[in-house]
Structure formats: structure tokens, C-alpha cells
Amino acid sequence: MKHIGIILLAWTFLAMSATLAQADLDTLPLGTSPLRMSLATVAEGKMVRTVDLQEVGVDDIVSQNPDTDVFIIGEFHDNYACHAFQRDFIEALYRRHPKLIVGFEFFTRDQNEYLAAWRSGTISEAELLERTEWYERTGQNFGFTRLIMDFIRENGIQTIGLNVPRDMVRIVSTQGFDKLPPEHQRLFPTLDMPNPDHEYYIKTIFGETAVKMDAWFTNMYAAQKCWDVIMAESMRELLARDEYNGYKGVIIAGRAHVAYGLGIPFRYRQAAPDVNLSLLIPVFAPETPEDGEEDESAHPMMKAMAGMTRPATVFSLGIGDYVFSVPRETGHYPTLGVMLKFEAGALRVTHVNDDSLAAEAGLEEGDLIMTINGQSIQSLGHFRQEFAGLVWDEVLELDVRKKIKLRREQEP
Asked: What is the pTM of this model?
């Protein structure tokens, strides 16, 4: 068995294709906003109100929207600045409207009892993550969400899970919505409401695959709608109760569920036409070229103008009510860069990303990881939770069992 020590060193990697895809998604003329055909820019690190391009802060957003029932905030899941903005906004909203309910995409509605126990101090964060199977369900580092959760716990703010167990949505994505039992189908009352702009938006995200694999996309899109419907319904149903009269809601979900008002906002309004929603949408700040670096394909006039203006992101005014710019950061927390499968007390490596910590350390497809920092591995979730507790410049120690195929050297 081979012992591997990995020093967690930070680096930034960004594929150009991802950059172009995100920029394209920012400028689509979709939704119902009368401004959807207009484009504007937001400077790096700034927030603007799209109706008049006024630069704002979180306190301004709160004061400008006293009648908003639910604020829906999109996020890039692994972006620290997005979550810092969410925390700052919730703090500002709480100061003026302490009757709040905050809902999270990454918790499910059947986990609310655990969230209540954690909020009251009955269980610890580690117990919350274990009982909600956070790291069994996702590899997302809880540290991003902790930014918001710490403030919620300190102030006793009502917190709910918005989603349903992934197994339910997995049936839809692989077999179709009609394969759900009737009692589960009833959880999604607005699913059949057509929304062509939304279907186009999701198809744009999946690109060529969605066009070439129509049957696959049909089920995948149904699953996407299920997520949108259930997250809208989870908040709507709770706020409709008499005991929550006068409360405001905050929904935190991935940007694709919020942008252009096509996902969660559309489904919410179908069930509650009189609801007052405000949509807060992040965009990535543009990357600045390294010294001496220049885009050879750029038009000469664009090159000249680039030196005279601040970096800014172009977006459609129909994308949301407020747009905030965040840096295109990766690697705030270490990631190993592998796909793993739990097998009888060990993790089998099924894929290794290029230019990853795992590749640098010599991990290969087929390797078995037996221990992490001297501990036996209980499950994939256990491994993820232990790894998530590490920070850059710490040492990760893995005991790895390798298979070596004995090949005869080729004769000259």
C-alpha cells in the first residue's frame, strides 16, 4: 500500500469555454421584463438596480423594496463572494424586518426538524451535517453555506429546506415524471404550466447535448422544473400559514433557478399571482489579462477602448431586479479533483481530473483509497466531510492501494 501526502496548494483554473458560455447566458432576451431587449454593464464588485442602473448597496435594496414578500438570490455554488453577499443582504434585511424565513436549495423539506434543532443549539453543526447527510448528497463544501448559517443561528432566524430528496427527482430525470407515484406528483402542482423561454434557457445551458438527445433532455428538463416548483412551493406554503403572517422570505438557490424570472419565480407566481418578488442575480466580473497578455482576435478599436474603461460585465436588463458582480474565483476551499465510489471500506477512484491535486499526487483511475489522515473510511460522505475540514497548506495523507499490471517490455 502506497502512502501519499498532498500539500494543499491553491491555484486558479478556468476553461475558456465555460467563460464564453456564462457570458452568453448573461445577455439573453428572455422573460417578461419590458427591459429584456436592453443591455447594460456592471463594474467589478458593484451592484446595480436594473430598472434605472442605479448603483446600490444591500441597505439600499432593503429600503427600496418594503413591500417585497420574497427575495430570491441566485448563486454560483462554489463562489465565496456570492455567499458573502447573501450573508450581508440577510443581515441588512434582518435589521429592518426581523421576521424572516430563509430557505436553502441544499437542504430538503423533510430535514426541517434537524435545522430547528441546530438553530436552537440542541445539535451541533457536525450533527446537522450528519443527520441531513450533507456530504452523502453533495461534494459542496459546507463552508460556503456556513457564512450565512452562523448569522442565522446567532439570531434565531427561521430556516427551512426547500428541496425534495434527490432520489425523487432522479426518477423523473431517468424515467419521466409519470413514473412518480401519485402522492409525489401532487407535490408539484404547477409543473404543467408551459414556459417556452425557460425551456430555451435550460436547453442553452446544456447546449448541443440537449439538441442531439431529445428524449434525454425531455426527462432532464422535467426534473429541472420539479426543482423549481418544489422550492417555490416550500416557501409559499410556509408563508401562507397564519403564524407567519407578516414574515418575509429569502430563497437561496443556484442562479439557473432564478435568472430572468423563469425558474422558481415563474412557478411561485403561477401559484400566487399577487406575490411581490425581488430577484438578485450574480454575474461574473470579467477577467483582467495578465501583464503583456493580449487578445489577438480582438478588433483594434476594442483593444484601444479596453485601456480606457474599467472592467465590466455586460448583461440583459431582464435578468433580474438587481445584478451584483463577483470575482471569478475558484479554489477558495481545496478540491481533490477525483470521482470516487465507495466499495467495502475503501474508495475506488473512477476518474481523475487533469491539472488537479489528485493528478499531481499520482492518483490514477482504479486506485483504492484506504484511509484519510490515518482514519478508516466509513462512507463517501465521511471522506468528503473529513476532506472539507482541511484548508490550504495543510497536508492530506492518504493510504492508497494500487494495481500494477505486469507488462513485458517490448523487444527492440
From this structure: 0.88
